[in-house]
Fold this protein.
Amino acid sequence: MSGPRQLHLAAFLQGVNHTTVWADPAAGSQVAFSSFEHMARTAERGTFDFFFLAEGLRLREQKGLIHDLDVVGRPESIAVLSALAAVTERLGLAATVNTTFNEPYELARRFATLDLLSGGRAGWNIVTSSDAFTGENFRRGGYLAHDERYTRAAEFAELAKELWGSWGEGAVLGDRASGAFLREEAVREVVHTGPQFDVRARATLPPSPQGRPVIIQAGDSEEGRTFAASTADVIFSRHSTREAGQAFVADIRGRAVSSGRRGDDVKVLPAVSWVLGDTAAEAAERAQHIRFQQVTPANAIAFAEQVWNRDLSDLDPDGPLPDVEPVEGELLSQGRAASRRIDRAAVSAQWRELSRSRGLTLRETAAEMSSHQSFVGTPEAVAEEMISFLDADACDGFVLTPHINPGGLDDFVDRVVPLLRERGRFRSEYTSTTLRGHLGLDGRPL
Ligand SMILES: Cc1cc2nc3c(=O)[nH]c(=O)nc-3n(C[C@H](O)[C@H](O)[C@H](O)COP(=O)(O)O)c2cc1C
């Protein structure tokens, strides 16, 4: 396509997450189909590339108690997306599903089904799920060390791709008239022997109009980046500032080229949030209000406990930071994100420096540290800033993570998308029927 580069946009309904606001009267159900439908329809009205769901397989716990937010529920994503396929026409539909606790044949078949049902709109966000706590839900427990999870993920994805690509030309419906058995090569048998999987199988489904589901990857370690650069079509990244984004994009493009691909075969989409106002001051005020909705007094203590890894329930959230040092050892916090490996000494020092230099209370510091709002301003300012990220090679677009469900995407689609379109930086209508087509990846090697 000629003209300036265009953004790719996705909508992320993140479910149980520390940035999701529940107390607001506008917050709706996290499990009702109408919530998913509202956000997906809004994303399609905005001609987004895709709608995206996270995976959380175990309720988070802190000091042995379940996080209050987690009891709102989190349905299984492929089932939700299958239902959304019936009420949307062009929007891509992507689910996060881990490769650690699933089997390739079964999962490849489920995604192939979603891909066919949706007419070529399915995407699979591959995660390896980092914590043994989640592993306890499964027969093998928290098995596999971190680097082995990527060995498994790579073999898993390779096998899934083989299965999706095994439906030969001879198996198309034209042969039906003869009423005969199909030739052996019509559906090629996939024989795979590797350290993780020993499989002899034939796929049960033909390819969709996009050939195979789009592969997305989220995970940031050395092994994660290498895997993504060689295998993924899209990376869902947490590098949402300009400088971090530029460094990440350059790193990924280099790795892609090293693995024999073109640099832009992989689209990098960081997770971002936004707050709009009629003036810059109004937007800043709203942003502050939202940060305090996200970081309630109880949440402020919970965040500090995650960093210090010790009981801080005696502290006043409106008072100073803990005057003790963080401790290592058994984690106080269990479950996705909460238990991420962090450098406690470095992060607590950052908290202290921020609190000291700006005179912030514990709650104010927790709000600053845990609730990064990427774009705050008027719709015009937000649109310009987003375009400038694209032009600076800090990303190929964004995964928008609303802080409220189901209406959190509405203002962006109503007020920012029209400006991106006017400036020629985002599509005004879909020009493809498939997710691969929306991403500009048609014709690239599958
Ligand atoms: C932006 C982003 C979103 C993620 N979303 C999920 C998720 O929804 N479910 C999940 O289990 N893991 C999620 N992860 C983490 C993955 O499980 C990842 O595979 C894990 O952190 C281990 O990989 P790493 O060490 O390479 O980061 C996400 C990671 C990133 C960067």
Remarks:
- The longest strand covers residues 92-98.
- The chain has a mean pLDDT of 92.
